[in-house]
Amino acid sequence: xxxxxxxxxxxxxxxxxxxxxxxxxxxxxxxxxxxxxxxxxxxxxxxxxxxxxxxxxxxxxxxxxxxxxxxxxxxxxxxxxxxxxxxxxxxxxxxxxxxxxxxxxxxxxxxxxxxxxxxxxxxxxxxxxxxxxxxxxxxxxxxxxxxxxxxxxxxxxxxxxxxxxxxxxxxxxxxxxxxxxxxxxxxxxxxxxxxxxxxxxxxxxxxxxxxxxxxxxxxxxxxxxxxxxxxxxxxxxxxxxxxxxxxx
Length: 248
Known about the structure:
Strand content: 15-25%
Oligomer: single chain
Number of helices: 10
Structural class: alpha/beta
Largest sheet: 7 strands, mixed
Number of strands: 7
Order of helices and strands: HHHHEHEHEHEHEHEEH
Strand order of the largest sheet: 3-2-1-4-5-7-6
Radius of gyration: 18 Å
């Protein structure tokens, strides 16, 4: 086996050990195909710099799935996920590959990115379970087809937690959870988020700190659940959540 193939295998093994989950041959082939398509598309349109080796396997795939390590133990369950600001498909496409009975909506306001997401979903055989929507979160959160319709609403590296909460909570069904992916996380940020969630009829269910393998840093995951129906005035109009964030 060549050194390159050995390295690739080592990258895979490290992250599956971390996740306590091993993909099937089909799932592994889908991840590899996704990486190839990202490399191909990156030549003509700048989607992400994290496409090679450990950049892809740890900083993209593992980072996307680690917060869902408990859900990964029950792949037979059928859930509805929405990934807000999906970009080049993380965490949404990674979740779609790993959770074969779930349906995923990928939301992004950039038509360049949603064109890529649609093409990739089709290429790796996931288009029956993936819906791609080109829209701002503030508009999509008011769409009666999408609002209050998901078991999980997820955002990775989009904005500060109190802003992201206003994007995510309106999508949750009565038992749904919002997952916010953050790098650093402080007590001050937690207090601001708690105040913001009061406005949204939601609460912090728990926070969890993970250490990504291969010295890729710390990842904090904030899980949020609804206490009651999200008030109709949220999310506010385009741009307002960022300009006038809740919680202050």
